[in-house]
Queue: 2 jobs
Job 1
Amino acid sequence: MPKGIRMRAPFATTIRKMEPSLATLLILTVGAVAVVGLLLAVTAPTGLLVGDTQWHYISAFHGLGATMFLLGATIAVYLSWRLFIGEIKAFDDLKWLTTFSAVMAAVTIAFGNWIYIAYRAPGGPRSYFLETLPEIHAVFFEFKEFIALFTLPMFIVSAFILWRYGKDIVRHPEARAAASIPVLLGWVFLLIAYVLGAAITKLRGV
Amino acid sequence: MDTEHVEEPVPEEGTELRFPTGVIVAALFAAWIGLMALAITNIAADVNGGFRTWITLHSGIGPYSGKEVFLFASWFVSWPFLHFTLRKRELDLRRWFGVFLVGMLIATILMWPPIFEAIADALKG
């Protein structure tokens, strides 16, 4: 039976249910990594890695967003497989990961639109490719810019079905397929866009 | 990752549950309609220069801006319409999900530049 959407932070619940010693160990480890990471970020010349123009930063956020999206979506694909075969236990994790992936798809597309301005600007990568390697723009970049948009509907559809029906869909084989296969499709579209984006950036960045 | 740490147990297998599936079909097909709108707008922009100019809503992004608007407008207009039309109907989800997958294949192929450019060239004559 369809039921209302119930929001619950999955990680807080998980930590609360852990043994106290394990929860402390986890929190201490995450804290230590965060402190060391912050120290390195503050003291290292990180700006040299990113670049010194506004477009370099937007490009970096686009790439980082896509990487976070890929990480979340990859785990979601595994859990979707468990759902597809009707053997999922971490159902809430799948709900949150598809939602996270949908949000990251929107964020990555937004930054992609922004960086596209620099790509198309006179003297930008588009001009360079059209003069030297026109197929790179005409085939690979054009396909990448469109296929990246396919990721958002796939993750939103899946997240919508998972939130609307909840665990009830585990007992409905066709609904399981309808919720899980779009995650796989979205992941494949993402992977295509990610690989093409990385390859094109390697040839000529903004 | 797939470990038992959820509060509520997942329903037991064995007894299949039935519920109106029109809502699922509506969500799937609204997404597909949006993607087909993107594919058709893209071909139309290749065929007609005037249309390409018309959908250039942002000079920096070019006609891509209008193509995105067509995608999102078609998706978000068709979704509530399909949702309220189909929400109480139990449709053959196996069949309609198969149609959706074939539709997704068509939408993906239509986005491959050698294909959409060939279609645009054929339409231009």
Note: Chain A has a mean pLDDT of 92.
Job 2
Amino acid sequence: MLDRIGAKSLEELWEAIPSEFRVAGSLPLDPPMAEYELTRRFAQLAEQNADASHYACFLGAGIYDHFIPAAVRSILSRSEFATAYTPYQPEVSQGTLQAIFEFQSMICELTGMEVANASMYDGATASAEAAHLATGANGRRVVLVSKGLHPHYRRVLETYGAAGSYETREVAIDQGATSIESLRRLLSPDVAAFLWAQPTFEGVVEDGKALTEAAHAAGAYSIAAADPVALALLRPPGEDGADVVVGEGQPLGVPMGYGGPVVGFFAIRKGDVRRLPGRLAGVTVDLDGTRGYVLTLQTREQHIRRERATSNICTNQALMALANTVHLALLGAQGMREVAVQCLEKAHYLARRASEIPGVSLANGGAPYFREFALRLPGPAAEFLRAAEARRILAGVPLARFDGGRPRDLLVAVTEKRTREELDRYVETLADWARSRFGARVAEAACRS
Amino acid sequence: MPELTLKEISVEGHRGPRLAPLDVPAEGETRLLPADRLRRGAPGLPEVSEPAVVRHFVNLSILNHHIDRAIYPLGSCTMKYNPKLNDEVASMPGLAAIHPLQPEELAQGALAVVAELKHWLGTIAGLPAVTLQPAAGAQCELTAVLMTRAYHRERGNPREEVIVPDSAHGTNPSTVNQVGYRVVTVPSGSDGCVDIDALRRVVSEKTAALMLTNPNTLGIFERRVGEIARIVHEAGGLLYLDGANLNALIGLASPGSMGFDFTHINLHKTFSTPHGGGGPGGGALCVREELAPYLPTPVLERTGDRYHWTDDRPRSIGRVHSFYGNFGMMVRALCYVKTLGASGLEEVSREAILNANYLKARLQDAYQPSYPGYCMHEFVLSASRQKARGVRALDVAKRLLDFGVHAPTAYFPLIVDEALMIEPTETETKASLDRFADALLAIDRESQEDPERVRNAPTRTPVRRLDEARAARKLTLTWRDLEDEVGRA
């Protein structure tokens, strides 16, 4: 090959790199390892993690242990999907392009919206891009964010807002749901958008219609961050009148994967299509009139529009969006509804049984909830978590992580995968811990306080 | 006959795998939730059996070109082979079925993966402080420009401008604008590199940073990078390396030694994680120690032999991802670097440069090279001679598809007329490179003997040229739009 190139040595090819920048000697890194050595090494690392096949997982807070059909993994492992690039040559990318089109279609069906893009990085950045879209649309600079939105999403909104396009202000919550009084107080002619979650971080089902009407009355966009499983059962934000619906697609066929890769979805009304961030697939025809798919409205995007693009996003989460697409196709209308109903019923069963234990109550009282709820314990939640781990239960996410003033509160998620046996074991473990730690009298005292 | 949509193959009552029956007493959703919060009826999803779903997606899949089939020489995209071991390892339940908020004591293996990959990447970059939170290269850029703002603000003035060469990727100017800086474009000189005199004229106390790609998008090493760094640093600005082209530098030169303050690394390019048809990617942002306080939170720390996350970084720009980034891609990238080891990594860029120069040597008599001399890991040809015969770069690209190979990046960088940007990567064999070169040479001959054939290409692909203007004019973006259109027709 060197002869053909006309070079005397390999080194001649990179003589353009001045010697002062050259790496001297070898990289100070480990020697190569064989496949079987690496399999063993990663198996050792994997064993140090508590995984959902060995523990009953009641953790949620944005990432859930839902059922994933084997066919999802099988389709995703196909080289044709996994090792293709962004579909820049549509004639040899029809598989990816049609899959994106079907993803867009199903996201619209779930959210009640008209247009969805090909995906965003995750639910948090989708929320931030939605705020950016609204400020661009109405030229206002304040974004109101319900404290019912995931705290991590709120932090990402602040980070992106600090880039200069908007300033965030938080709307209070009451019993886990947005306080409509607080929202009305904060709405003003400067407000570009109001962001709310369906359900909220603590699982409470919002009255999206009332929130949207309040936002619209002030001329602000209503942006919902919605859970896609809940949308199989709840009234979709699109029907509430929301202008943008975003969310995290992980519950639809994507492994928890320590929080990534996950996938954001982003849905809007047709009137805002030229403000949409990211890729978009559309139908067209080829020279013979055969139906085909292309990336469309690319003049919104960074590779064409450069500094005037709607967003800097390039690579997104296409394979995870494909997982959503295959998952939704396999479960279908009835299957998705059944998943949602089972989550709802099982969460309520656990909440009811747990709150019968002296000293244990629901932190948000009688507020309606979907798959997740905040449990108030008679003592430190962290202590109960350790007791539960000993019985192979990951019992919930301690809310003290997000609010130091709530050491006794635990966020508990229940998916369709949790069995009656696991739910009963949870209740028994909690009852044993409460009894042994506090005794009946203390537990009752805690209950009264 | 095109593959029908899921909606078109939907049959009422059909469905895939079923759930176990509800094993707790059913209360009914109307008792558990207020009636006005419930959806009327089930969502409009298709009803399809598992075999029909699998056939649908398998039929779609075979319409795709992919790296396991043949060369995929998109410039600046680094479409190298993705080793299968990496996917296998990443799917172990102990790495895939783990929750981001499980106790850190029960996630030490995951944290060790993050820590170890940070060490490898920081060493390769020569920039020791690393975050793996960004989901892709563009989000690394956003993170870095936000850090730039925080850095300058602490010094009393956030500054106003970020300089970007005219050969830069579109994400650079787009990011700069998104972070509220003004884009200042610096032209390339006749050698394809940044015009140093022009740079001196635009650098000032307003300059927050310069974003540079090195080697640049022409595949040329910016040999005056040391001088560029001095000019920017003397004005108090920061120097960012767009690491899209790191596949040319591993074990040869380090961004840190060149004077860069940050570089991003695309795990889905240089570190072989599958591109997935447009993601997930994986972004690593490597910075100088001095910039470490601004990195996104949470930050991984080690105390004794335990790892833990901390948010206690008051100067941090904050969070950029719901959790910690694309962890599954980190597992794959770590498996990749450990497979190669130090010695294998040192071969990567050398082989990539050799392959690119070989291809260039085979093609440069037929296609005008954008600049003379050796290239790094990629190079840009111009189809200007072919254009004179009525065949454009687009036609050449489309005709290549008929040969069963993928086209190069076309019409980028913008500064080359009829650009074809070619990056073969190190994982192509000489036979594969020859096959690709033979195809391009055959197309050059066709452009002389039968240009119509090239202009009509492709003819052997699942569909022929698609009407992109129609797609943009008559937006059909969902099944509902499609039904409306069919209804009207």
Note: Chain A has a mean pLDDT of 95.
